[in-house]
Write a sequence for this structure.
């Protein structure tokens, strides 16, 4: 039987359970990839968005899983942040704050 003291000394491993839904993000459907990892076309709320450029890519390793953030320029002229949950292979679009 494991005691409480013994459990405290065991090395902690990150949880294998990823977040079901990232906060302040909407789930998107990725339609097309470029070079097998860059987003090219995605669907958000029944609208199709085509990516024309990528501003930056950042990797984020956290306890609840690894994520890759893409700041993309879409064909409509808006910049959006797309998040790829690498463990669950789920894509999200971050909600942008409206600036007054």
């Amino acid at each position: 039987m494991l005691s409480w003291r013994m459990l405290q000394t065991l090395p902690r491993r990150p949880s294998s359970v990823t977040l079901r839904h990232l906060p302040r993000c909407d789930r998107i459907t990725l339609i097309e990839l470029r070079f097998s990892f860059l987003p090219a076309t995605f669907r958000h709320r029944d609208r199709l968005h085509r990516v024309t450029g990528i501003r930056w890519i950042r990797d984020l390793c956290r306890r609840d899983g690894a994520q890759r953030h893409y700041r993309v320029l879409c064909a409509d002229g808006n910049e959006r942040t797309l998040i790829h949950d690498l463990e669950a292979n789920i894509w999200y679009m971050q909600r942008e704050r409206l600036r007054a």
Notes: Residues 22-94 form one domain. The first helix runs from residue 4 to 9.
